[in-house]
Amino acid sequence: RLRLQPRIPVSLADLADPDFVRSMVIEKGALVFSLTDSANPLRHLDIFLSPALSFERLTEGANWLEIGGTKVRVASKELLIKIKNEIQPLRPKDLFDVQELSRLIGENPG
Length: 110
Description:
about 110 residues, alpha+beta, 3-stranded antiparallel sheet, two-stranded antiparallel sheet, 4 helices
């Protein structure tokens, strides 16, 4: 119904298996399971694989934005920086994200 497909060749149903999720996190270093819409590459959904990245944590201090006429909650830049800094080992893309988020905060404090 949503027309989203896993980015990697793995069944979405596999996420119901805790052993599969654990192996994705430990062996592959995965933080999210990504789904995309092949007809619209900007349409993307990440399913977080770690309890440390729970919905409840991500919505603390979240901001409401309107995107395409739909209101959505977006995690705060400050929380994203905190979460990125908790990743071990810190990957180059996470370091880049921290630097860019910090730059954005500096441009628009408050």
